[in-house]
């Protein structure tokens, strides 16, 4: 079926609809990854977004039930140059097109994704709509507020996973990726996921030995309750790690500020420098907002920096066992250069437990 992508500035791209083939709107963003479309599609951080894949051929290894970050696709739409309908991979169980149709996700192919990406880079992220045939979207509908993104992906109840006898880790879930949970469980931890609106008191009742602030979608300033929770948690000396949205919330809870990037960082090829060692890692990223360095509170110090645009990629608390990174160390999809950050968190937790067990003299 013929269709078109119409941006809110009036720019139009024609193509062919696939998947659910229904009219849909969202914020149009691009991802530069060459592979990993299945992890991308199921990443809760993409809620309310229509994702453009810059790699021209998509769907060539089909889809499977293993490489997913949540139970279903979370993107509003998928925009590609060419969709492969003859996948070839030993783990593939079907075509990407069928997977999207089954879950009600609309896609469009035949788009000049290079031109579209350049347009977003020059004009910035903006709303867009996918429509069929000669239809035209209502401008008021196109620009109307989108649903609360975190509310649609956070857990609705406390879930405890992993080793019941393991070190207790409480996760404030803003839309956590499955691979993050797996990394914690693989280290023998007992992981409890809490809804985004959970208070510090409710989390501390679990008597966790560490706290993780997860990734998630949207503007961190739209989460005042979460910012208060993080602020209350910081009054304790409990080890804390933040990832992506969790990184931004930590900064805000400490009195810092964030700003929206022109077109965000999305892809598995972003170089990040560890300022203390000089080591450079290639990272997987997916975010629209960044920490405003000139407003960084005195209690925080910058630990990592993006070598493409100089943005802050990591911070550490000067007095407490607390740190966060803007990128995704779980590497799903993307390079595994930064997986050791989970070891750093585990070491912080173990050192904290040892201090508690040390007898008084």
Automatic annotation (TrEMBL):
Keyword field contains Ligase: yes
Q: Which residues form the Carbamoyl-phosphate synthase small subunit N-terminal domain?
A: 1-131
Q: Which InterPro entries match?
A: Anth_synth/Amidotransfase, CarbamoylP_synth_ssu, CarbamoylP_synth_ssu_N, CarbP_synth_ssu_N_sf, Class_I_gatase-like, CPSase_GATase1, GATASE
Q: What is its EC number?
A: 6.3.5.5
Concerning SUPFAM superfamilies, the annotation shows: Carbamoyl phosphate synthetase, small subunit N-terminal domain (SSF52021), Class I glutamine amidotransferase-like (SSF52317)
Per UniProt, which keywords does this protein have? Answer: Amino-acid biosynthesis, Arginine biosynthesis, ATP-binding, Glutamine amidotransferase, Ligase, Nucleotide-binding, Pyrimidine biosynthesis
Annotated metabolic or biological route of this protein: Pyrimidine metabolism; UMP biosynthesis via de novo pathway; (S)-dihydroorotate from bicarbonate: step 1/3; Amino-acid biosynthesis; L-arginine biosynthesis; carbamoyl phosphate from bicarbonate: step 1/1
Which catalysed reactions does the entry list for this protein? L-glutamine + H2O = L-glutamate + NH4(+); hydrogencarbonate + L-glutamine + 2 ATP + H2O = carbamoyl phosphate + L-glutamate + 2 ADP + phosphate + 2 H(+)
Oligomeric form and interacting partners: Composed of two chains; the small (or glutamine) chain promotes the hydrolysis of glutamine to ammonia, which is used by the large (or ammonia) chain to synthesize carbamoyl phosphate. Tetramer of heterodimers (alpha,beta)4.
Name assigned to this protein: Carbamoyl phosphate synthase small chain
């Amino acid at each position: 079926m013929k269709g078109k992508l119409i941006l809110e500035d009036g720019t139009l791209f024609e193509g062919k609809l696939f998947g659910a083939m229904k009219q849909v709107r969202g914020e149009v963003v691009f991802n530069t990854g060459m592979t990993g479309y299945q992890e991308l599609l199921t990443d809760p951080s993409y809620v309310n977004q229509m994702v453009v894949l810059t790699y021209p051929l998509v769907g060539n290894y089909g889809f499977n039930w293993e490489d997913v970050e949540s139970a279903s696709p979370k993107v509003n739409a998928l925009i590609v140059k060419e969709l492969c309908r003859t996948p070839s991979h030993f783990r593939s169980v079907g075509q990407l097109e069928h997977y999207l149709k089954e879950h009600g996700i609309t896609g469009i192919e035949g788009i000049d994704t290079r031109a579209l990406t350049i347009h977003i880079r020059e004009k910035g992220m903006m709303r867009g709509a996918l429509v069929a045939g000669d239809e035209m979207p209502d401008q008021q509908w196109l620009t109307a507020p989108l649903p609360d993104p975190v509310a649609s992906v956070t857990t609705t109840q406390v879930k405890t996973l992993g080793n019941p006898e393991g070190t207790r880790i409480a996760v404030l879930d803003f839309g956590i990726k499955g691979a993050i949970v797996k990394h914690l469980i693989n280290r023998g931890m007992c992981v409890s996921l809490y809804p985004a609106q959970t208070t510090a008191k409710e989390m501390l009742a679990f008597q966790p030995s560490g706290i993780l602030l997860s990734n998630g979608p949207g503007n961190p300033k739209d989460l005042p309750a979460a910012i208060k929770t993080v602020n209350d948690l910081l009054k304790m000396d409990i080890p804390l790690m933040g990832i992506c949205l969790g990184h931004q919330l930590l900064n805000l809870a400490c009195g810092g500020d964030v700003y929206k990037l022109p077109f965000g960082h999305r892809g598995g090829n972003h170089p990040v420098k560890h300022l203390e060692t000089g080591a450079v890692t290639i990272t997987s990223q997916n975010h629209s907002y960044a920490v405003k360095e000139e407003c960084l509170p005195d209690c925080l110090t910058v630990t990592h920096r993006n070598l493409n645009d100089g943005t802050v990629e990591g911070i550490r608390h000067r007095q407490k066992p607390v740190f966060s990174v803007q990128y995704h160390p779980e590497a799903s999809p993307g390079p595994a250069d930064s997986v050791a950050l989970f070891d750093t968190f585990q070491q912080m937790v173990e050192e904290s437990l040892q201090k508690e067990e040390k007898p008084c003299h």
